[in-house]
Design goal:
Strand order of the largest sheet: 1-2-3-4
CATH class: Mainly Beta
Radius of gyration: 19 Å
Number of domains: 1
Order of helices and strands: HEEEE
Structural class: alpha+beta
CATH architecture: Beta Barrel
Distance between the termini: 59 Å
Shape: elongated
Number of strands: 4
Helix content: 25-40%
Length: 77
């Protein structure tokens, strides 16, 4: 009985942790990023010396990681 209760508790705990972890869908931006007016982040990708922000207006903004300067803008059709 005790083993069954522990196994059920473990499954419930695992499921709860997965739900909690996946429920936060807000992208985390570095603190010094300034997006263009009216744009909000939909996704963030971080590379070795750059990071890219996908905006809700179908653009990919690529920033330099050390300076925070905008390096490139790619329009997505």
């Amino acid at each position: 009985m005790a083993l069954t209760a522990v196994m059920i508790g473990g499954v419930v705990l695992t499921f709860a942790l997965i739900v909690i972890r996946l429920s936060d869908r807000t992208p985390t931006l570095p603190q010094d990023v300034e997006l263009p007016d009216g744009a909000s982040a939909q996704a963030v990708t971080i590379g070795p010396n750059w990071y890219a922000v996908v905006t809700d207006d179908n653009r990919i903004l690529i920033f330099d990681k050390t300076t925070g300067a905008l390096k490139q803008t790619v329009a997505v059709d």
